Amino acid sequence: MKRNLLIVLTALALVATVQAQATSQGWVGIWHADVGGLPTSTLTLANDTGALGGTVVLDMVSDEGGTPHVTESEAHLLVNPAVAGDTLTFQVKMRRRDREGWTASFEVKRTSPDKATIHCVNCGAGAPVLQLVKDH
């Protein structure tokens, strides 16, 4: 009886792992956002370890001086990435002058197989929703 229970639990764990990998597989790749031809973020996702993980590079854009330009780029490791249907959520630990040591929460919503939107849900009312496009 104990052996049968162990076999069933092992099979269920294997099915759950395969389903999680299949769900995350469509997200794997490099996703880019830009505004007016300037990069604003790059989301890189992989599941090499069996779990979805990756990085995000956030580019700071300024229009000071009349011409928009990238002033700074910040690379971050994704914390707690999770997929639920067509939505990916994750956090990044931020170090900004005005908000030292805070955690930003992001939501990425798939709009088609190769397009999604990304939005920082706790960055304030002015946080933009940007279009992401997946590389082929």
Keywords:
alpha+beta; 136 residues; nine-stranded antiparallel sheet
Polypeptide structure, described:
This protein has 136 residues and is α+β, with helices and mostly antiparallel strands. The chain has one domain (2-134): Lipocalin. It is 18% helix and 57% strand. The chain has 1 helix and 9 strands. It has one helix at residues 2-25, and strands at 29-35, 38-46, 53-62, 69-77, 79-84, 87-96, 99-112, 115-120, 129-134. The chain has a 9-stranded antiparallel sheet, covered by helices on one side. Residues 2-22 have low confidence and may be disordered.
Strand order of the largest sheet: 4-3-2-1-9-8-7-6-5
Q: How far apart are the termini?
A: 50 Å
Helix fraction by DSSP (H/I, runs of at least 4) = 10-25%
Question: Can you summarize the main beta sheet?
Answer: 9 strands, antiparallel
The number of strands is 9
Which spans have pLDDT < 50 for at least 5 consecutive residues?
Answer: 2-22
SSE ordering: HEEEEEEEEE
Quick synopsis:
The protein is an alpha+beta fold and 136 residues long.
